[in-house]
Amino acid sequence: MAWLLLVVAAAMELVWATALKQSDGLTRLWPSLVALPVSLLSVVVLSVALRDLPVGTAYAVWVGLGAFGVAVAGIVALGESVSPQRLVFLALILVGVIGLRAVDG
Question: Which residues cross the membrane (predicted)?
Answer without folding.
Answer: 33-50, 57-79, 85-103
